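Input/output pair, single chain:
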Amino acid sequence: MPATLRDILNENVREGAPELYEKLDRNRVRCFSCGHCCPIPEGQPGVCKVRYNKGGTLYVPWGYVGGVQCDPVEKKPFFHAYPGALAYSFGMLGCDLHCSYCQNWVTSQALRDPRAVSPPLEATPESLVRDALRQGAKLIVSTYNEPLITSEWAVAVFKEAKAAGLLTAFVSNGNGTPQVLEYLRPWIDLYKVDLKSFDDRHYRELGGRIGPILDTIRRLHEMSIWLEIVTLLIPGFNDSDDELQRLAEFLVGVSPYIPWHVTAFHKDYKMTDPEDTKPEDLLRAAEIGKRAGLRYIYAGNLPGRVGDMEDTRCHSCGKTLVKRYSYLVEDYRLRPDGSCPSCGTAIPGRWAREFAGQITAHPFLPRRASRLVTILNS
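Output:
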């Protein structure tokens, strides 16, 4: 009988990091990789479906990827970290939430939805880093599924990446724990959190709670890991003026200089009822954020239709420093030390000493095909 996807993934595992789980009575374990902190009985997986208990030991994903892709760093999106650079992205399978509008559902819901089929590819940290360097990447990013639930694999890749001079990043729902953030801390440079709502009821619809996400945002800022926030604006779900104001005020309370990306929803996966987000919806949300005191607000996914809300301007003098159209950097004026050339104000972010030019304005097509091969289900 052919192996199922679960059979294959259960063979591609290692014991979880001792910092990320504890043994309980009756052969149970408690996992600390995400905010669910699952107590997992013998023979069962956690909420994520990919971390499981066998014989009182927690086993976690290892040795594969669900896909790789090179993209502009602006697509992640990071707007205050090395504009124009190429980000080599990899992901595994599984997620600790089940958002009905997930755009990466083929990988994130692979063990939850029988329609989500993404054959895993054999990989090693060394092979991923070699591929990233070969493509000219400056960053290597764990994304596509929820990277917190595969933190051990991400750290193995990031250790190799840092030794090779690459920067590292997570694109995450932010449903973390103090334990997993401390585990990641030495190996991660940038972190994007999807702040999906500012209503705990909405988070419970998605399979989580808002508390761990807000705590993660606070902790990442305290750790001085560069942080950017994305909110996908969904009509009728999270776009009320009151909710957006409370969300923006929370971010200002952490730091008014955290970039906030308000991006446009389009019908995807199981969510086909709301209308697609309009440019005026994004501009309304941006105005609410501006009134709350946020200094860097971006409107995304509708290039050329949101005025200058794709550009980075100095929060002190208002001069345009990075001009963008979608993922394309059209003009770059920051000084080598990351300050404004007009008034000298230091601009929060992670900036290169010099602008290396735009590597790609679109999803990057490798010059040569990836050498990763599918794990067969024989």
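The chain has a mean pLDDT of 92. The first strand starts at residue 13 and ends at 15.
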